[in-house]
Amino acid sequence: MSTDPSRTQVSIDESNKILRAAIISRILVLSLIILWRSLLSPYDTSAILNPNCLSSSDSDTSSVLPIWPKIGSAIEGSIVWDGVYFIRIAQCGYEYEQTYAFFPLLPIFIYILSQTVFAPLVPIIGYRAVLGLSGYVINNIAFLLAVLYFYRLSIIIWKDRKTAFRASMLFCFNPASIFYSSIYTESLYSLFSLGGIYHLLSGGNTIAVLMFALSGFARSNGVLNAGYICFQAMHQAYDAIARKNRIGLAAMTLIGGALRSICIFAPFIAFQAYGYHNLCRDLISDEIRPWCKARVPFFYGFIQDHYWGVGFLKYFQLKQLPNFLLASPILFLALCSIAYHGKLWLDEIAFSLGFRASNKEKNDAQVSVEISSEVSKENPNLRQRKMMSKEQTLSSCLSPVPSEPGTVVPVKSDYASISFIPFVLHLAILSATAFFVMHVQVATRFLSSSPPLYWFSSYLMAYRGRCAYFIWAYSAAYILIGSLLFSNFYPFT
Question: Distance between CA 400 and CA 176 in Å, rounded?
């Protein structure tokens, strides 16, 4: 099949525009961080304090006096909130039990970059400043790549370049932007999560599993990405039985999906085993932590509960009402997104997870049969009008939002036409977890990598024009307020 050069050029031009917008958004956020840090005094000035590592393996470079200490001090002072933990882990490893709440992928990348590319900067700005600089570079580059994956994934799902472009622009300036340019895991998680889904839908199962596994090595909720593998495997197995009558092929497909899912869980399980080895072995009975004695030791849940008070309904307190208000916009947007996209598949397709055709599809098929039987008896003009009506009816079943002329992109397989369902289920699980279990204010960044939020917002901007002002105002306000509060160690999310 030949490729249309004009369409390829349009795709390249749009990708370049998206990349430029992503770069501008990162420059904007980093500029705001520098601005607010220079204008206001931080609430907590202890960020530059850096006690020696407990282990003797601490690098001698950490004690070298830098040539430009002011630059190094400025970078160290910008390391706040969870960034302090990630930098400490990169420098000293896992020293305390509570540090195991932070997964190792980002610290590993920071350590590698600080020991290679940025190693010559250690004598100039200091070792800890180099670690911080490495974290900033990693996360901002990861965000740029995540945006490109988001755009390509949006095209595959929606088959509409303009919808994908609008959604990608929203992702570039999302309300949690401050975290995508700080030393947090949002950028890496988004890169590997979105990249994994894109490669899965493009037929690259191996690289998809690898990227999903890395997303689980960056954040605990990365293991939920195994759901996309399971969803695909179930549909392929159903296809093998229903259409090809090959039960053996269906069984092999399910086994393959299960094995790939295990690979995605492997980094998470390995990290739990690593923590058990370090915190539970070679200790006398009185020193063993409670979670070590469990039949299935699971330190992550214990640490979240013991040190941060994370648990079901634990945050439902009157004094936390301001935090619920802070998270209310993203939670409301998530609820509307779930309701809107769920309504598109409200018939049998929603309840059967896409295994059966909906009544609407069946009716459309019946209409097409009736039209086919009548067109031979009618004049050419009437036949043409009915054929056009049939095409519009059938296309409305495949596209949730009306596609504009010249923007439709061919779908790779039948699976892609119903592949939106796991996105909605994934967002629903994350939203319920953020509202009922977690500290609710983190919902803004916790849900910020979920594509349906931006796809729904893109729909509102295109077909509900007044909503565009509210969406952009919401994003702009949270970018400004977030960069102001977060960078100066004031509570934000």
Answer: 27
The gap between the terminal CA atoms of the chain, to the nearest Å, is 49
For 28-57, the DSSP string reads HHHHHHHHHHHHS--S--GGG--PPPSSTT
% of the chain surpassing 90 pLDDT: 58
pLDDT tens across 26-78, in order? 999 999 999 999 998 888 777 777 788 887 655 455 556 888 889 999 999 99
pLDDT > 50? residue 334: yes
Contact 404, 160 (CB under 8 A): yes
In degrees and rounded to multiples of 5, residue 491 shows phi and psi of -60, 135
Beta carbons of 445 and 187 less than 8 angstroms apart: no
Prediction pTM value? 0.84
On whether the CB atoms of residues 231 and 208 are closer than 8 A, the answer is no
Q: Are 14 and 151 in contact (CB under 8 A)?
A: yes
| SS3 state at 280 | coil
pLDDT digits (tens, 9 = 90+) for 8-26: 555 678 889 999 999 999 9
Instruction: Note the pLDDT of residue 479.
Output: 96
Distances (CA, A) of 129 to 62, 120, 152, 185, 281: 10, 12, 35, 19, 35
Band of residue 361 on the pLDDT scale cut at 50, 70, 90 = very low
Alpha-carbon distance of 269 to 267, in angstroms, equals 5
Q: Vertex 434, ends 428 and 438: CA angle to 5°?
A: 150
CB 220 within 8 Å of CB 300 = yes
